[in-house]
Amino acid sequence: MAVHLVSACLIFSSCSGGKTKTGAIVVATSSWTAAYAQAAGAENVVVLAPYTMAHPSEYELRPGDIPKLMEATVIVYAGYEVMTERITKGLNLPPEKLLLVETEYNYTKIAQSVMELATLLGTVPVARENLLEIRSAFEDGRRAVIEKKWTGQKVVVHRFLAPLAQELGLNPGVIFGPGAPEVLDIVTVSKSNAFIIMDNRHNPVGLPFKEVLPYALYKQLLNFPGHLGTKSLSDVIRYNVSQILSE
Fold first, then answer.
1. Is the same domain home to 83 and 175?
2. Are residues 38 and 17 in contact, defined by beta-carbon separation less than 8 angstroms?
3. Percent of the chain at pLDDT above 70?
């Protein structure tokens, strides 16, 4: 566990006691929820799932995690983690200690969750500055899509990346996943004339679509920061945009 904590701290903070300037102890379930805490202005974040995990949502609580959760002022979680039931029901944690964030690359939802956490931490001015950077990343991506004349163009997109496609001005004409595609899905995609297949790097299942859309670009995109040099939400947005634009 010490290795996991140090690795997470190298990404998100200096780990000086796991406390923000307000004295709050912030525990995040994964690098994605930790990025929300970082955007909200938390200076140090304790991350439970190692950022190197391919599927962070599958991380199961270990005995060493329990004291961190008990001591936390705020626990930031997304609700789909394997550990969710233990956190919300099994440890008798006070409800006011738990903050559910809706993790998707939609600016409005990001801003809502970030500001809610910032209000708890007393870091609203910092959060506002960070949200400007996140908004800028989306706006830069939209401009790039416009320059490519791709606005409104149909894409085949993994369910967890559909909000990003919409934010960038693309048309998620066919949404697939998170499970492996079935025959009907492949038939639907074959008739879509989509020019990009946007798959989830953390759980890629869309490669079979390439066989029926041979001229489409196939891209594996990120959700969880901590991979491929990304640290923050804006890093992930900019990385994904760069991948979408590369031909």
1. no
2. no
3. 91
